[in-house]
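Q: How would the structure tokens look for this protein?
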Amino acid sequence: MKDIPPITPERDSILNLGKVLLVAYLLVGVSLLFWGALRADTLLARDDNPRVLEAEQRIQRGSIVDSNEIPLAFNEGPPDDQQRRYPLPAGGHLVGYYSILHGTNSTEAGFDFDLRGESGQFWSDWVRRTLHLPQIGRDVKLALDYAIQETAVEALGDNNGGALLLELPRDGQDRAQISALASQPRYDANQLDDTFEELSTAVDAPLLHRVTQGQYQPGLLVQPIILASSVDQGIIRLSDIVENPDLPVHVNGSELRCAGQPPDPATWADVLTHRCPAPMLELADRIGLAGLDVAFAGFGLARDPVLEIDTETTPDQPLEDPLLAGIGQENLSVTPLQIGLAMSALATNGSLPQAQIGAAVRDEAGEWEPWILDEPITQATGPAAAREVRRVLPEHNGVVEFSPVVLSGPDGSTNAWYGGMLAGDDADYVAVVVLENNASEAEALAAGRALLVQVQP
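A: Here is the predicted structure in token form.
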């Protein structure tokens, strides 16, 4: 038997060193397993990971085009340093922005999965990364018509506010395609990284999507909605006589009366035609908060609309005073998109349509695959009530219009609104405009009509 060498201080030190090295190797192995497998996603997602920045700069993001395939956003530059470009400034809030520093917004955010070229399949993504293949995004076509979008921007002029045009194709799908969406003030997405801090702190909030997120008191914009709901429930008939429709209504020191002189005797139809507030107080008192909740919920004013881009707003407080709520004051606030969809329900068959921005996404074969935002359609009111209310609204050159100037604050400030409905050859169109801190009905009328002129048959 071979003799075991005696343990000497030197040999003891070598054994101890070996143990230390073994433990160290084990710790390194465990660490590599932990960070390389179990926490790989966390490590890759760190903001200070240069590999993330390098990988992001190599993504060949898909283009965004309008309904006529006019480019609204595209990538350019060398493969390892891709830059996003926005060639047409009127695209603005509808197209949004993409920034490595500040993320995505609007359409760039809503279609980010397709624009980045994500597959959602682990193995195909793993093979692409392993072989260092370029990540190529898919192009997105919008329902937007850029010529109308330019008109919407021009129609706002120097006013802060929003302009919207919805197209309601007669295909039985109850879809409202957004043909134009403009918000003022605007920003230049090409300069976003340089101006973001200024934009995000500006008092006039240029990054706010006023059409989808701007919150405004609706005033008598709720009048057709409440009347349609009341007719549908059998509470009133538009032919019923209304006593003293032009009585003054006082709100926050301001006196509100009919926009025009109603006939004597007057009916509910005349109340709507002449935009009289006093009878709405009596009707709101009769139907109560429960009846108002039914009307507002039915026409989509009690929830944020579903859309590819962000429509989230600050939730309204519960209604407390039915009288003020009956004339669109109190705790109720709306976005122009909500008003556009509510008017669309009157324009068609009483169902609340589903709005969408997207029209198609290009597939791997280079063909446009139709895009449908598949959300359930709800009923705002019965078809008969919708048609009856629409029939008594004022009409100008074939366009049904409703354009109140709305008290918007305790200081007496006002917003001028326009809502118009046009029956085209193949589709119905709804235009909505809000001009902030404006008391000119004529200016709102001109802005809204400018949108509808481009789609008149």
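The chain has a mean pLDDT of 89.

The two ends are 109 Å apart (CA to CA).

Upvote if useful.
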